[in-house]
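Weekly puzzle thread! Below is a chain. First person to post its structure in token form gets bragging rights.
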Amino acid sequence: MKTNTSILKITLLLITLQFLIISCERSHEYDNANNIPIESTGENEKFKAVAINSEMSENQNTPDDIKIIRNATMRMRVRNVNEATRLARNYALQYSGYVSDERMENNSYLKENRFTIRVPQEYFDTIIDSISSFSENIDTKNVSTIDVTEEYVDIESRLQTKREVKERYEAILRSKAKTVKEVLLAEEKIRILQEEIEVAEGRLRYMSTNITYSTIQIDLYEVLPEVDAPEDKGPSFFDKVKDSLSFGLSLIEGLLLLLLHIWPVTLAGIILGLWLLKKRKARN
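Winning reply:
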């Protein structure tokens, strides 16, 4: 009996000592790490790095549908403006585009044609490279890219909100507006919202068109060969005779007009001359 009691006491003592050792080890582990050990959660350094990278990726997500407007202006010297214009028009048609705003100018030393090409954005670079290929020299080339994603999404969001508010006002007008004042107020709110909706829709249509179709403004010019001016040898004999006859006729015409302007003096002179002539004859 005493032997069994001793064994039981020894067993309880060993269990107590083991519990104390385990408690001390755990306490020491928490004191050193000040946190739950990574191994105890099933995590490791590689898992932690992946988690950090995943969080950074979520914070740096880019929109799936980016709205970009691309425009370009080019000024090029070509061998033949008419032929270059024809080629540019064919390229535009080939890639589902079109030519607009064409203006041709000519002078003694330069032939120039300015026009605009509207082409689907996916063919923007292809069209520019194709047109550049038949130029003798590219004087200027400017390409601009404008990201309008934020503005586009903002307008879409505001437009949806305005439509929802307009629907609520229409519901109020149909069922809850009882007095004339309430009806007029609801109608005024609906009118204002409708105008704002139309403005937003117009802006979205304009942006969508410019996003879908890029604009390329092209200025083609051809330098014309210089033409020598004919040598001036002066007027010929017949030209001089013609000028003399013309001058004589002009002089006679001027004299007649002068006499007509001073007809009273002319008439008095004629009368005086006739009187003097008559008097001389009477003396003879």
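Puzzle host: Confirmed. Bonus trivia for everyone else. The longest strand covers residues 110-120.
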